[in-house]
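Justification of computing resources. Each target in the renewal requires a structure prediction run like the one illustrated here; the chain below, 184 residues long, is used simply to show the kind of job we budget for.
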Amino acid sequence: MTRSTILTGFLAATALLAACSGEKRAPDNAAATAANATEAAPAADGGNAASANEGAAVPAADTLSFSRYVGKYPFDKVGPHSWNDDPAVKSAIEAAVSDAGVRKWVLAAEGPSSPIEMIDGKVAAWTCETHNCGPHQWVTLIDPVTGAAQVCYFDEAAAADKTRWFIAGKEESRSGQCPQGERG
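Resulting structure tokens:
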């Protein structure tokens, strides 16, 4: 192979990777993602195991410690998974959210997000709809000990002064907004 063939192949591969990344995230997340990629390997499991919460079946967390995602964005890999694609997170959300439409938004998790943080002793991941963040957003809170999820869902078009909370397959309406932690 000649140098120009190798160089052309390298440039073409670089262009394809840049064009095909397909990741959807807020522009300001890029710097944090780059910084997170250089951090050390994730912490050990810590022995947390999930259990049932008020009759909702939540699978055992096995090697997952939900707290290891704190400080990362939901799309950042921690070990083999990101928060968004972690089977234990998905199972916890499925057990908590009874509304199929809400569950679809929360599990897709394709909009802008903030770093995962602790709110009231729970691991919290905030996401919103792209180009519609204020009026349409949700927070997933997972108890790091039991693995049980709670989801606060806000859709201004449906109710401007109320949030919908999903816990153990049941829904309730609450006044106010979803918890905001340090991002609020």
